[in-house]
Amino acid sequence: MDVAVAALPLAVVAVLLIGFLWPATRAMPIAWIAALAVGYVWWNNPPDYLVGSSFVGVMTALEILWIVFGALVLLYTLMQAGAFDRINRGFTAVSDDRRVQIVLIAFFLATFIEGAAGFGTPAAVVAPLMLALGFPALAAVIAALIGHVMAVTYGAVGTPIIVGIQEPLMIYEDQIVNEGGMSVVQYSYEVAAWAATYHALTGFVMPLFAVAMVVYFFGPSDERTIKPALSVWPLCLFAGIAFAIPYWISAWFLTAEFPALIGAMVGGAITVSVLRQGYLLPDDEWDFPPREEWADHWVGAIEPGDDGADGAVPNGGEQMSLLKAWSPYIVLIVLLVVTRVVDPISAVINDADLGTEFAIAGVGEFTIGVVIEWSEMFGYDLSAAIGWMNAPGFWLLLSAIIAIGIFGMSGQQVKAAWSEAIQKLVSPFIALVFVIAMVQVMIQSGGAPGAPEAGSMIEILAIATADVTGPLYPALAALIGALAAAMVGSNTVSNITFGGFQFTAAHELGLPSQIVVGTQAVGGAIGNLVAIHNIVAALATVGLVGQEGRVMRLNLIPLFYYALVVGVWALLFVYVMPDVLPSVFDVY
Known about the structure:
Layout: H1 2-6, H2 8-19, H3 24-41, H4 47-81, H5 83-92, H6 98-116, H7 121-132, H8 137-147, H9 155-166, H10 173-180, H11 184-203, H12 206-217, H13 227-230, H14 233-253, H15 259-276, H16 322-341, H17 343-349, E1 355-360, E2 364-369, E3 372-375, E4 384-386, H18 392-407, H19 411-444, H20 457-469, H21 473-488, H22 491-508, H23 513-526, H24 532-541, H25 548-580, H26 582-585
Antiparallel strand pairs: 1-2, 2-3, 3-4
């Protein structure tokens, strides 16, 4: 009964989102109410404790939204300035071959946008760009969703790791410190590094996967074949490896903010340079069948081939250089590296003592400064903090402000960029606040006075799952993360929901938890392939709303490939590799 009741809030999410196809803005408040009811009736949580747990979730959601807002402002600033169109044209000028364009745009450009903005942005931005180039709308959406999957674990400058793994695992801080001799921050970065290892070993074939899906399902109707994809396999694998190597290195030796950004920028630059030298270009040029032969469901309200953008700087008309177009993101990476690597700066922007402290009787203790913190909520051991200056959101906004001067933008353009970003936040705000409040009620439920000794709702579910699956659990861990991401449409929320779940299950089975939680970070990424929210957003940008089911069915192919291969690697890392390479695995 404990397990069945603990699963009730998640069951409500599944039924409303998948069964009834409700939007998250309607489903999540009801799921939160279900969690409150379970916490009060079954877990004996006092009402004010439940309110405090919910506020922990609200503050976490606000930190995510702060990052997303900064990411969207920077993205729309580049769009208003014409810089983003210049970046896109830099890719498309390399070749007219559709297979090459898939590699450069649906893979490199989409992974870069995911690393910079996250939260469903890549498919919603890249799909209309590909439509403008003449791709069928459905093919553009599928290619963009498949192409960006490796970057999702590090979307919005590392948010799924920093907010999704690091902050929820603070509840296990004593256990992590005592058993591993590391802080929760260090632990989360090791999780990110293991996730990059899974991705690098599994996802380097994603460019080939995206090309194969497009040429097979959108080639001539009388001859379905992947032969056109196989003829460009050297390019696809070169591109995947060129991305994966700097991506993996940055995950292990920098921090979780950078893998997707560095992988896309370095790998993309190398691949474009090689192609411009005439290497790896296909001998023949592949294109879609004539427009009159296309199936009706390939195209919606927007006709392919309508681009209309000139790629020029609005204030003057001169053609913008690629370096200038990329410069705001270069500034962003420099700012993030400096604020993470230079200890005096990092210490200042993380110093919770730099602020005003006060207390409100019966409510809690507050700090307002470079860190906004609320502790001892309603007299309980509940706390939450927003490091608004340390969070990437601040540096994203600063980069956007610097970009205004770089591009010489008008006040009207700046207003348009910021207005668009604010409008895009309305729906995610409602969904995120309630879903993360629900998750925090489930996570914190075991810490209330009078709560069952068995632990929180999440711990009960994790232990039960570990008992049922036994030694095979690592093979299934990525699918658990994928299921959550498919339901809620976010890798970050999937990690918040199941990061502690995976941690507890790993300890229950005596397995190295960094390696297991790393599969969660990967699973949350691949779940975006079939996340209804991302699919709807992408289809809307190409005028093809109503084809959600078709996209989900097709994208189950790469999802199951990814989950299966990651599961095999997880079993090898957990049970085989420690004996083969003991010095590498000793710390785990």
